[in-house]
Amino acid sequence: MNAKQLAAEAAVEYVQEGMKVGLGTGSTAYWAIRKLGERVAEGLNITAVATSRASEQQAKELGIPLVSFGEIDRLDVTIDGADELDGDLQLIKGGGGALLREKIVAKGSDRMIVIADETKVVNTLGKFPLPVEIVPFAWEWTVADLAKLGCVPELRRDGANLYKSDNGNYIADCRFEIITSAPELALALHSIPGVVEHGLFLGIADMAIVGKNDGSLEVISGKTKP
Ligand SMILES: O=C[C@H](O)[C@H](O)[C@H](O)COP(=O)(O)O
């Protein structure tokens, strides 16, 4: 079993009968959705919402019952991957372009469990270019504002075209190298009008389950949410 699958399957053990579950996005979340599908096939009753079209499609194929956001107020748990995580459970997410839906779903969950292989754990965030979802309108100005924050922003491409998120927005991947204060950066990003959301997840994750290549697991517990 690979390290991502190991972490994902350990996280799925936290899902209990009757729970409302947020399904993350990406190659690690894929394994969690797959395991959940197996448990549903064995008789587990849950309902779920997905954080991307891709995860929605996977859940449908596996027979995981999906509900609309109008039918539920909150979720019990969300299981999702990360591009980077530090010891305080600060995350960079959005490598797969799903950061906005992921943040909405994670913030609406009583518990967010992050799943990752050991390569994602860092001392300081920033090596992975921070994904920032921006509106297409005047994107050139938004990208210029992002650069003023000390990064090198690059608009994500999808072959010959600009990449569009599931929400029809662009993603600027912002290379900072080192993010010295993630909370300050988060505030600065939100002060730019063209920014819809950024991939810094701060004070959102409750625990991380990290799979290692030697087959072991590490659990990182977070601070209690306010
Ligand atoms: O937008 C994508 C998500 O934030 C993913 O959860 C993140 O990029 C990690 O993906 P993966 O598990 O494929 O490394």
UniProtKB/TrEMBL annotation:
Q: Recite the UniProt keywords alphabetically.
A: Isomerase
Q: What class of enzyme is it?
A: isomerase
Question: Which catalytic reaction applies to this protein?
Answer: aldehydo-D-ribose 5-phosphate = D-ribulose 5-phosphate
**Protein's pathway:** Carbohydrate degradation; pentose phosphate pathway; D-ribose 5-phosphate from D-ribulose 5-phosphate (non-oxidative stage): step 1/1
HAMAP family, alphabetized: Rib_5P_isom_A (MF_00170)
How is the quaternary structure described?
Homodimer.
Q: Which protein, by its recorded name, is this? A: Ribose-5-phosphate isomerase A
Q: Supply the source organism for this entry.
A: Paenibacillus apii
As recorded in Swiss-Prot or TrEMBL, the protein's gene is named: rpiA
